[in-house]
Amino acid sequence: MIKKWAMILTVMTVLGLLLAACSGGQGGQAADGKAVVQADGAKSLVIAVPVASSFLKEAVQKFEMLHPDIHVEIQEFFEAMKSKQNVTLLEVEKYIQSMTTQIMSGKASDIISTDFLPKDKFAKKQAFADIQEMLRQDSAFQPQDYYLLPSASSGDGQYIMPISFTPSGFVQGNKQLMEQAGITIDDSKWTWSEIGELSGKLKAKAGQKFYAFLNIAPDFLLTGDLKQYYRNGEARFDSDEFRHAMEQIKSLYDEKAFGMEDAGNYGKGLSNSLFSLADMSGPLNALVSYLNPDTAIYRKPSFAGTGGHGGTVYEMWEAYAINNKSAVKNEAWMFLKFMLSEEMQTSTELQGFPLNKAATAQKLQQAQQQIVKWDGKQDSQAADVPLPLSFPLPDAQAFEQGIKKVQSALETVKYSGYGSVDLDLVNIVSQEFAYYMNGQKSAEEISKLIQNRAMTYLNE
Fold first, then answer.
1. Contact 192/253 with Cβ under 8 angstroms?
2. Coil, helix or strand at residue 81
3. Exposed, middle or buried, 8 (CB in 10 Å: 0-12/13-18/19+)?
4. 3-state SS string over 375-440?
């Protein structure tokens, strides 16, 4: 619990830094709402970020070379508050209020990094421009050439533009243990409740020290599936579906299908785990995961047996919104579109998977070349390959099949509105869910408490 709160406080600190500094940004428009024009005649485009990534800096440099009539300014707010070592939660709340005021008044920057921000709330209040409308009007942009993006004709609306992403909805199975226990998986419809049955089979064959999963916290399971319970300012936590999810999770821990190692032995017993979270953090890691003959990759179980509710969970590495009151929305869209171009998406500075499918194909080929070049060597010259192979170098056919499997897995990752879950809602659910896990309150009591707190937050 201490580690968890330390992580949340760290995230909120960064958020606070961003929000406080935003109060000084007016974006690319003057007080009369017209675009700001530089002395050299160039339009000004302002991007607000907590900390500018190397990828963003590279994109700005190349974009300005292609468009000398547009000047792009990055407002990096973490640096502005760098000297302040500690930020209290009270200060963070003030920063959130400050950022909300700036965005809702239209005086924020033209492009806004959505890291840590309550994306749903701003989108609901139409503070962000509908990027899908820009897609409809831009015939040169083809959404089918990208992962995550809904079709231009879907009509669902899109207010956040991810630049890169990481699928987080996959697990890997230990083939040896699965064969020993006679376990087969259909990941199109399996549920978390089935994990208890599989754990029972494993323990009967291998012993009580074996688990279905190790070292996964209960609230991680619940909050990882949280997006389906709120949308467009409405929450559905006071529902049989949500209560059933809580009950499934508690049952998994009560029946010891899930286990937690103590701090002194953390990670030492993973070979006794039937499943573990798959490493899909980028093309190289994902390809190694799919090439490993000792493991099998599956989509994570769902609570309702619907194969992940129509799409695999993901996290955004970088994502941006366009200020709906910006005077340079067209230029802002031009910049976002440039960051999604094959030229930029193949950059070595981009983290995670590119949204651009052609760029992903290139990076998977590069990952294959890295693995072949490395071929199990563990000397310093191979330091650019962070993953030691625990199996022989695959042949060309295995590489081809592995790449196709990664690409097929990425196709299951569907656009889900705002991507990552609102951190404040994660905090609310985690706090209340703990009282259910330790037996202090019933599932019905907790679901109603979470519903009330969530709606109070969403209506603020």
1. no
2. coil
3. middle
4. CCCCCHHHCCCCCCCCCCCCCHHHHHHHHHHHHHHHHCCCCCCCCCCCHHHHHHHHHHHHHHHCCC
DSSP state of 192: H
Quote the DSSP letter at residue 54.
H
Residue at 98: amino acid letter? S
Chain centre to alpha carbon of residue 413: 11
Beta strands 111-113 and 295-299 are unpaired
pLDDT digits (tens, 9 = 90+) for 242-290: 999 999 999 999 999 998 877 666 666 678 899 999 999 999 999 999 9
Relative orientation angle of helices 443-458 and 423-437, to the nearest 10 degrees: 160
Tokens standing for 83?
């000297």
- What share of the chain has pLDDT > 90, as a percent? 50
| 384 Cβ neighbours under 8 A, 6+ residues apart | 370
Largest interatomic CA distance in the chain? 77
386 Cβ contact list (under 8 Å, min separation 6): 284
The β-bridge partners of 275 are: 173
Instruction: Dump the DSSP string for 211-275.
Output: BSEES--HHHHHHTTGGGGEETTEE--SSHHHHHHHHHHHHHHHTTSEE---GGGTTTTGGGBSE
pLDDT digits (tens, 9 = 90+) for 372-430: 887 655 544 444 555 556 778 889 999 999 999 999 999 988 776 555 677 788 899 99
pLDDT of amino acid 23: 39
> How far apart are alpha carbons 185 and 212 in whole angstroms?
13
Instruction: Determine if residue 171 is left, alpha or beta; phi over 0 gives left, psi from -120 to 50 gives alpha, anything else beta.
Output: beta
pLDDT digits (tens, 9 = 90+) for 408-419: 999 988 776 555
* pLDDT at residue 2 in the model: 35
Non-local (6+) Cβ contacts of 240 within 8 A are none
Using CA atoms, how far residue 313 sits from 171, 222, 232, 301, 432, in Å, is 12, 13, 19, 11, 23
Amino acid at 272: N
How many whole angstroms separate alpha carbon 326 and alpha carbon 131?
13
Contacts within 8 Å (CB) and 24+ apart, 4-11: 4/217, 4/430, 8/423, 8/427, 9/89, 11/116, 11/423
- Residues of the chain short of pLDDT 50, as ranges, are 1-25, 31-32, 80, 82, 85, 87-88, 306-309, 379-383
Q: What per-residue confidence (pLDDT) applies to 35? A: 62
pLDDT of res. 14: 42
If 0-12 CB within 10 Å is exposed, 13-18 middle and 19+ buried, where does residue 83 land? exposed
